[in-house]
Amino acid sequence: MADVDFGGVLREVCLDYVPEAKVGDYCLVHVGFALNLLSESEAQETLSLLQEIAQLEQEPSGGE
Amino acid sequence: MKAANPAPPLAAQATPGRPPMKYVSEYRNEALVGRVIDEIRQTVTRLWTLMEICGGQTHAIIRYGLDQLLPSEIELVHGPGCPVCVTPLELIDKALAIASRPEVIFCSYGDMLRVPGTGRDLFSVKAAGGDVRVVYSPLDAVELARAHPDRQVVFFAIGFETTAPPNVMSVLHARALGVTNYSVLVSHVRVPPAISAILSDPSCRVQGFLLAGHVCTVMGYHEYVPLLEKFRIPMVVTGFEPLDLARGILETVRLLETGKIEITNAYSRAVTMDGNRQAQQVIHEVFQECDRKWRGIGTIPASGWCLRPEFEAFDAESIFDVQGIIAEESPMCIAGQVLQGIKKPNDCPAFGKDCVPEHPLGATMVSSEGACAAYYRYGRVTIR
Question: Model-level pTM?
Answer without folding.
Answer: 0.89
